[in-house]
Amino acid sequence: MIRSRPRPAARYGAAFAAALMALTGCSSGAPGLRSTTAAGTSTPGPFPDPLTWNTCGKNLECATIKVPQEYTEPEGAQIPLAVMRHRATDPDRRIGSLIFNPGGPGVSATETLRNLPKTAGTPGAFSAEVLARFDVIAVDPRGVGRSQAVRCLTDQQRADAAGTDFDPAVPGGKPLPRLLSDAAAFTDGCVKHQSKKFLASLSTDNVARDIDQVRSALGEDTITYYGLSYGTVVGPMYATLFPHRVRQMVLDAPVDTNQWFGDSLPFQHDVALASERTLDAWFETCRTEGTAVCPFGAGDPQAAFDTLIETLEEEPLKVAPVEGVTPGGQLDGAMALEATRALAGDQNTWPLLTSALLAAQKGNGAPLYTMWSSVTVSPFPVPTAMFETHTAVRCADWRTPAGIAAHRAAAAEAVTEAKRIGTRAAYSVLNCARWPAPNKDRVTKPLTGAGTPTALVVAGRLDPVTPHHWAENMTRTLDSAVLLTREGVGHGSYGTNTCVNSAVDAALIHGTHPADGTVCATDKPATTRPLVPANR
Q1: Which of 174, 177, 441, 530 falls between 20 and 30 A from 281, CA-CA?
Q2: Are 246 and 225 within 8 A, CB to CB?
């Protein structure tokens, strides 16, 4: 496992490398079926056929399984789901199948599994021992990736959204009437591209039922499960609906499932505060390390950052196209804020953030622009195709107020309590407020997983998306769980920390757990020292 500076490069891949090249002035020319009621009780149904596998990469096999669009109508419309398998590398010691969900919602599990060799040292990267002992199974959830990904915008609308001039000083980035108009266009597009019944079927309880279809088709009596971020909603849902099918379960960067199925406005407010805290942690570390280490802001990084955002918004920096690196464009304040939010959320990318901010101060916007263009999943709106899936899954689960007054009040609270990130969070669930395909029979009862083995819940102390108190709440909600905390800043812990890696491997393989409340120190202290010297 990669544990030092190459780790952020592995996580952000080409975007990180491109940003670093932009900083240094270098360039490169290469770039069993169950039908379950809303109350959560299961009734027998037909069983799926065994999966038919085809080789689709090194050590990879692919298959497709068809599942009911509605489990109350098992003989009705079907949805094809993409499934991928990485066979256990030591078949003589094989334990069984490990199903994982990498989160989002909207992240393709099959693409994540395909890219595992390139992403060692990043959240969710399985150890060699886990890969030896399990067939790792990736399932693109319904509406995600190659499982009929949700489409709500045309290519032109996506391009227009990417080119929109947002104002970082305005809640939501635009005047409210324009935000409402955008929400109408988005939701109208969703029902234009797919049926309301399909959109209503994207709820997490159906995703859990789909997993049990896959389990049955694999011929497994039980599964081992690892979920990251939104995957920690899927796991407890599966454990609650099918407790006798869970062998072991690890939940990394957990979501408070009680809040997930509740009012989405307080949920998003918690996310905004969590993201603000990680940015504040970068500011505080920069200030504490001093100008000899972190020259950005000359001792007052907060003021320097605010000035930079305002300056970029008034006069954006032109970014020249570089073949294999960036198509070029311009960097404004809103883009810089979003790139900073993403980079501040992982202490391993803090040196890159410092370098990128210093470069922008000197008129080189390429590093921040490159990182902005690489953000595909965000808790707040981003103009990517993945955001369409992200929104559809959330709206199928969430309970969002329809009245605009509640959204106005939440926006005012967000910009007051999260000074910089609050404008990104404001009005971020308007699409769900007018969602055209309500899921009236979704499961919303507490996800206790009663009857399953003890779950391992892993949480970062400063997580930019899933705050630590959500992990505490999940541990209390689950019938049997232990909490392991990783110190430091970052979203997701397994694959990034030696102490966590050992604990997760022990839980997945042997079913053994650390004492509840155990804390893992960071492998490497956080620093804001720039990757590129300030005089470059």
Answers
A1: 174
A2: yes
The mean pLDDT value for 297-301 works out to 96
CA-wise closest residue to 517 among 486, 490, 491, 485: 485
Residue 198 has, within 13 A of its CA and on its CB side, a CA count of 21
* Nearest of 72, 202, 66, 226 to residue 136 by alpha carbon: 226
Classify residue 153 as exposed, middle or buried by CB count within 10 Å of its CB (0-12, 13-18, 19+): buried
Residue 166: how many CA atoms within 13 Å on its side-chain side? 24
Contact criterion met (CB below 8 Å) for 139 and 394: no
CA–CA distance, 327 with 338 (Å, rounded to integer):
19
d(CA 429, CA 190): 15
- CB-based contact 16:24 (threshold 8 Å): no
- CB 530, CB 358: distance < 8 Å: yes
Q: Which residues pair with 68 in a beta bridge?
A: 78
Confidence of residue 407 (pLDDT cuts 50, 70, 90): very high
Percent of the chain with pLDDT over 70: 90
CB atoms under 10 Å from CB of 298, counted, come to: 10
pLDDT-wise least confident of 79-83, 247-251, 377-381, 491-495: 377-381
Classify residue 219 as left (phi > 0), alpha (psi -120 to 50) or beta. Answer: left
Q: How far is CA 388 from CA 97, 275, 363, 394, 527, in A?
A: 30, 22, 34, 10, 35
What are the residues whose beta carbons fall under 8 Å from the beta carbon of 84, sequence distance 6 or more? 56, 60, 61, 62, 63, 109, 110, 113, 114, 137, 138, 139
Alpha-helical (H) ranges within 345-446 are 350-361, 366-374, 385-397, 404-417, 422-425, 430-433
Taking the C-alpha atoms of residue 343 and residue 528, their distance in angstroms, rounded to an integer, is 11
Cis peptide before 44 (omega within 30 of 0): no
Tokens representing 107?
A: 């992240």
Q: How far apart are CA 148 and CA 205, in angstroms?
A: 18
DSSP letter string, 470-485? HHHHHHHHSSSEEEEE
Do strands 78-86 and 134-139 pair parallel, antiparallel, or not at all (unpaired)? antiparallel
C-alpha 101/C-alpha 231 separation (Å) is 5
| 177: helix, strand or coil | helix
Q: Which helix (H) or strand (E) holds 190?
A: helix 176-193
Rounded to whole angstroms, the Cα distance separating 375 from 372 reads 6
Task: Name the DSSP letter for residue 203.
Answer: S
Q: Which residues contact 396 (CB under 8 A, 6 or more apart)?
A: 199, 200, 201, 202, 203, 204, 435, 437, 439, 442
Bridge partner residues of 263 (DSSP): 399
Does the pTM surpass 0.90? The reply is yes
Number of neighbours of residue 393 by Cβ within 10 angstroms: 24
The mean per-residue pLDDT over the stretch 481-488 comes to 98
- In this structure, the strands spanning 329-331 and 317-319 are antiparallel
Do the bridges between strand 518-520 and strand 481-489 make them parallel or antiparallel, or are there none, so unpaired?
parallel
